[in-house]
Structure formats: structure tokens, C-alpha cells
């Protein structure tokens, strides 16, 4: 049975935390479409986010209301403890139709509660709330004052509870197995797709005590000239001797993610690659060391930058981001980034994926860690050697 | 090497087809953010769609321009044959930043080409073009006239080329193996996550001749009371004797999908389930029989509905949708649906997933086929028994 993953008390705390942020932002109503935010607030799960769905959270009235496709309403009843009246299905004719849109139904639901003249927060930069839906709400609710919720719920998720940390640690145990399987399996002549098969297998079987979930990003493994860019996926070509492969992998436990990148070379590596891998690991560990409560994200990046500068390297892109509960297409939380100018102050039990990739023309290195912020610095969730992996 | 999957001539034909639709819609410029549409037009691939990226296609000037994150530009060079000047990267500081947005950069790119006063089509109901991005374009390009492109490229994709059909057929060969592995593996006491491990493994290893890709929807396998709703994913609970499981699975070959659903019962099935499965298969085959060039989507649905009505069943939701090239979160193309009121006329070599699920309170049946429209009716791409699978 699907069942609940967290206690009702924990969901109640989360709802209270979000309402407190809503009060500060002056919001009467929040329209939540991000599947991770919906899950975090209510426990709702299922691969139903490809059709519009929302949780409506009013500042003062009712609890959260789930609005979604009729065939998914039983999933809301099975995975949440929302009362029956808080599960509000729309008929299937709204789905991908030229005549009507689920946002029409959503507007009608808001109106039926008398919430149409409030200040309404919308997830204006989410994947699962479209410009068409937004325009429909604006037209259908002319008395509302709309605001960009600016990742309000995402920010409420940034410090993990003990129950969440326990899932992060379980994910990390699976990630160790996934990365070990990938490193054990890669060899000249092995088809990329066959290695990916083993990676997925390890992600799902997990451990004898618990299994894994789908991850929000698929296994990434650029190889050869492809290592100059991070987001290529696999083909069915074989891995080749004399080439590097970057593996950015993860495991997810109940949708909590622990990502990890490692770099492998088949055969003796070029000096540049070996040297760069050493600098990346040194810089990564300097960043972890700096990741203490009270430090800012920018200061963590600066600790990395000081190391690589000493070695004559530069990197323009951010070196990490908050991570945790997520759904495709991204396991990042879209809140704090480890980069210059991000003055987010670290707090104990925030989790980040620090992934300081260095990419050149047709080559690159990624060595990363997912860590939790502790008084002693960023605590790595996995224990896997950070060295460049060299296989013959 | 990543390389190209289709000939330049085929991409040129696609671009010409889209420009012809743009002319009918009166569009000077199309902003394409859907990763499947980007892939179809240019060949660009990679799991980079979690940050904003776009292909700009002008009616008369230049070829398609790729605009995306700097670290992904090498992937554009590796997977497309766009000229160097047509790959336009934005700096990493635009990513998930409170100060600036990739849409600012996109607007600047449009302005730099002198396209800011044209009629510009936007994918207003896509996953990868946000309301915030849309508002930024509206503000930054006040002289433009914006239009909802209404799935313009998706509609151009609906009839498959011979090269595309060949990938659909390869995907189907993998799907057969995936479904067979799932049916072979399910048994009382087996953890759901372990069966999913085998499913993913089969999806990726494919055949000796070609491997598989990630699918746009993860394996769906509601079990027990969960079979009353279609989009639940797995847990690590074991499958139980006396319970049904619905498997909606797929395989993807170079991102072309062949989905298939089957229903399994562990132990002697309840009569209601066995009877319903028989009716669903009969109705499904009636729909396939009706899927000839010249028939409408509504007529295909009517053929199904006539069968189940005779058996005293009704179904409110659509029974299928166009399918092909896609990226998460949906393998459907968001164009034609097999349902009453959809008067899309079928043409040879359109592909659909016909999935007439019947769900009751805590139980359900799904038996589906992916088919290609031919003069002899819908040709099933897979050859797997449609019967309710009963295992002891």
C-alpha cells in the first residue's frame, strides 16, 4: 500500500511554516504546482504532474486542498490524509483540450471558496504552471492581486527535519552502491546502455532493508569528447580505451536525493586530467570545510575558488545548490546556490550538492559530494574515494 | 560520440514544415522550449532542459538558433549540425538567480536580430517555458505581438517519417522485452522496487543490436488497492498473492517511445476483473480496427465505446493520444486525443497509444497498444498477448 511517509504532525509543522512565510509575503492564498512542494505539504505522490494539478493553501481557512485530474483523485486519497472534501477532481475533458484548461477549473474552485479577491501567490518560475494557466487565472479572477511566490515553499524546505535527514542518509547508502556498480562495470567495449542498465538496477534494488525511487535526473555519463559538457546522456556505443567518462549519478529514497559525480579514465590518464582531478578534490574539500552554520553560500564558493586560483584554474559557473526532495526534471531545489553573490546564510541541516565541474574543449572533470551542514563543516553523506578512477 | 540521429535533409524538411505552419498562423518568429520540439528541429539532446533553453526559428531569416546555458553549448555542437554562430550560450549567472533570468538574455538575443517587432509564437502551455519567462519577454519586447503557438511544432510531428517509424519499431522490440521481463518477474513476495530494477534493466539493455533510452514517464505499477488509479509508482513492499498489478511501461529508442500496459493478477482473479479485462481487450481491438486514414479520433473512440456499452461499461476519460519523440514528464504529444469531440482526421503513419483504462474503487484494468495508422487499421507495434495475466 502506498501509505504516508511522514507523520501528520510533521505535515502540520510544514504547513505552519509555509503560512508564516505567506504572512511575511502578504499572501492570502498560495497556488502550489511544483510536485515536490505538493508532496512536502501533503504527502501526495504519483507521476501525475504531467497534467496540471495544484494544492491551494489559504492563509487562514481550511487545510490544503488538492485539485487534480479525476483519475488521480484516488491516489490523493491513498497517499495523503486530506479529508475527503479537500480532494477536488476535475473531469478528464479538461486534459490537453483546445476548448478548456484545468486552470479554468482551478479558478472556479478559488471562486467557490470566496478567495478570488485576495493576494494570491503563484509559482511563476515552475515547470508545472504554464503561462497559459497563469493568463487564465489572471483573466478569470480579475479582483485578485497576483504575486510571484518566489520559491516560497522551496525555501521552507531548505532545512531538513530529522525524518528527512534519515531519508537523505538512506539515499546516500544507495548512491554508494550505484557509484560502485558504475565504476565496477565500466570497461572498454561495454555498451554505454548496458552500464546504464546496471546503474538503474542498483538505484532501484537499493539495500536489503529499503529500495530506491526514480531520480529527478537520469544517469548522466558523457564520455570521450562529450566530457566537455555535463548533461549528455548515453548512446549504445561502447566505452573506449584511452577515454574519460564523467558519471553524475544519484539515488532517491522516497524522492529524497543524494547525487554524486565521479570521473573515470580507461587506461593511463593524461597528466592534465589527473592534475585537474586533484585540484578539484582539494577545492571541493575546502568548500566542505567552510560549510558551517553562519557562513554564506558565497563564502563556501570562495573557499573553493581560493584553492583553484592557487593552481591557476578558474570556473565561471556555480559550484552547487540545495538538494533534497524532488521530482523530474531537477533534483536541485532552486533556492540557494554556492556562488559569488549568494548571501544565503547556512543553517544546520541544510543539504547541498557541491559539484564543482571543470570543463575544457572536449574534456572535463566532475567530482562532487552531497553534504549536510553541521557545526563541524559540511558532512559528506557518502563515503566514496574522491580520486580520479583509473581502470585499465 | 553523440552524433546526429537523422539526416540534415530530414531536419530541413521539418524546418520547412514548421515554417509553413508558421506562415498559416501569421508568425514571424517561433520560440521553441519543449525539449522534444528542440530535438525534432535541430537534433539537440541532453538532460539540460531543467534550465531554460530555446530554439528561435524565424520565418525568413537564418536557420534555427539554439539559446542555452554556457555549459550546454558544447552539447549543441556535438548533437546538431547548427553553424557555430547559431549556438548562443548565456552565462551561468542567469541560472536560478534572483537578479536575472535566462529570458532576459533571450529577449536581448531576439532584439539583437531585429526581430522584436514581429508576431512571436510562444509555447504557452509547455513545461519548459514559465510564466515568469513569458512576462519578461512581454515587458522586454513591448513592440512584439505575442501569440500562443498552440503546440504548432507538436502538430508538425504527428505524422512520422520512415526514419522515425523505424525508431518506433525498434522501441517496440525493446518494449516487448520489458513487458515480458515484468510479467516473468512479478510474484508474491518480490519487492516492487526489485521488479522495477529488472524493468529498467530491460529498458536499457534493449537488444543485441541497439539499446534503450530513458523514458519520459517512469514505470507505473499500481498494485492492490492502488490499481484504482493509474499514476502511482512503486514502494519497497512485496507484491501480494490475491492482488492485481497494473503495469504501464514503455521503452524508448533515441527518445521515441512505445508504451504498453498490461494487467496481472497473482492467484485466481475475481470474476469482475477477468470479465472487464476481456471487454477492454475487445474494445481496444475495435478501436484499432477503426483507426484508418480518414477516420477521426472521435470515431476511433466511438468504436471502443460501442463495445463496452454493449457490456454495460462506461468510461469518461480519453482512451489515447498521439505518441512518439518525447522527454519527461510525458511521452504523449499533447495534440490529438482519442475522445469524443476530437475531430482530428487520422493520416497514415500517425502513431497513438490507445490505453482505455477502466478504474473502480480500489481496482482497475489497463490493456493498451501503441499503433501506427495504416490503410488496414491501427497496426500494433508490439506483439504481446492482451489477456489478463494470471500467475500463481
UniProtKB/TrEMBL annotation, chains A, B:
Protein name from the UniProt record: M24 family metallopeptidase
Domain (Creatinase N-terminal) ranges: 14-159
Domain Peptidase M24 span(s) in chain numbering: 167-375
Pfam family, one: Peptidase_M24
Residues annotated as transmembrane: none
InterPro entries, per database record: Creatin/AminoP/Spt16_N, Creatinase/aminopeptidase-like, Creatinase_N, Pept_M24, Peptidase_M24B
